[in-house]
Specification:
One of its GO terms (molecular function) is RNA-DNA hybrid ribonuclease activity. By secondary structure, this protein is α+β, with helices and mostly antiparallel strands. The protein is 34% helix and 18% strand.
């Protein structure tokens, strides 16, 4: 179905949501017979700017669906200090960029790579404890992302990666 036969505002096309017209207090300027296909841009994405004129963000999130992650974990806050000690940190934010929390930790002696892994582990642990079921991890380290997928390193690093993989399997 390409949406040409579904009326955007009158038909209940979003799972568990009443027809959108019922959610809009003033709809005198709205073409109630507009087809759903009209709400899709040339690149195949939803015309969210148009939906946002009339609908609350909660409904916009349902329109977007599960293809867009709701929570992002950025872990590019790791650093190795001059004395050889490392710190890590990260920021968790929602789909609109609103910060949910920031975190950091002093790690002692370890590499920046290991500090990045600790940052992911800390962030995932928090998100799971808070009940989040879906998260996208963002990092600027291809080496780290590859290591998590391949688990090929030795010692402490491998244990960190295994623990991260365990946490990822829970969400």
């Amino acid at each position: 179905e390409d949406g040409r036969n579904v009326r955007c505002w009158r038909d209940p096309w979003i799972p568990n949501v009443e027809p959108l017209v019922d959610l809009i207090p003033e709809h005198s300027n709205l073409d109630l017979n507009c087809s759903l296909g009209y709400m899709v841009l040339d690149d195949g994405t939803w015309n969210l700017d148009l939906f946002r004129i009339w609908l609350p963000e909660m409904i916009i999130c349902k329109i977007i669906g599960t293809h867009q992650f709701g929570i992002y974990l950025n872990t590019d806050g790791s650093d190795r200090l001059e004395d050889g000690f490392a710190t890590t940190g990260g920021i968790v934010h929602d789909h609109s960029g609103q910060r949910i929390l920031g975190y950091n930790r002093f790690l002692g002696s370890c590499s920046v790579f290991e500090a990045e892994l600790w940052g992911i582990l800390d962030g995932l642990s928090f998100l799971i404890d808070q009940g989040y079921k879906e998260v996208q991890i963002r990092t600027n380290s291809i080496e780290m992302a590859s290591a998590i997928h391949e688990i090929t390193l030795d010692g402490q690093t491998t244990a960190l990666i295994r623990r991260i993989c365990q946490l990822l399997s829970q969400i």
